[in-house]
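okkk here we go again. third time trying to get the zinc ion bound version out, last two times i messed up the smiles copy paste (missing a bracket lol). double checked this time i swear
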Amino acid sequence: MKNQPCCCGSHKPFKACCGPFLSGELKPELPEQLMRSRFSAFCTKNVEYLLNSHHPQSQGQHDRQALKNTVQNTEWVALKIIKADNSQLDNGIGYVEFAAFYNSNGPGQLHENSRFIKEDGEWYYAEGILLEPLKFTRNEPCWCGSNKKYKKCHGRSS
Ligand SMILES: [Zn+2]
Ligand SMILES: [Zn+2]
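finally!!
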């Protein structure tokens, strides 16, 4: 795993990207890093990391078992960071808009604008606003990173 490309789609090796965050060796300095590492935590089924990087005030709402089930039943395929809004970092607030692609009884997409907050020097995921799924035109490169056109890849109508 360590030398393999990170599943967050950064094209960096896991050990030079999300790996040190997931192991607790390093703390994310930017909301986007936390966002990527949380996606990698979903890929590597690291439930503890997902719970611990959730803001303490909203952690309670998270049922550990429900999260485990989601993690077990979902295969996360690709992450596309659309926009990181770092304009309020000094106030301890950051936003990252992303689309995450998964398979769970068929392909699905989670398009969300997430809010992150910094507390005692550490970034936490606070909550996300669900957005309409992204639409791809037929000749665009496919979101999965295959370098194929969408119509020849995941957008192929069977
Ligand atoms: Zn990564
Ligand atoms: Zn594809």
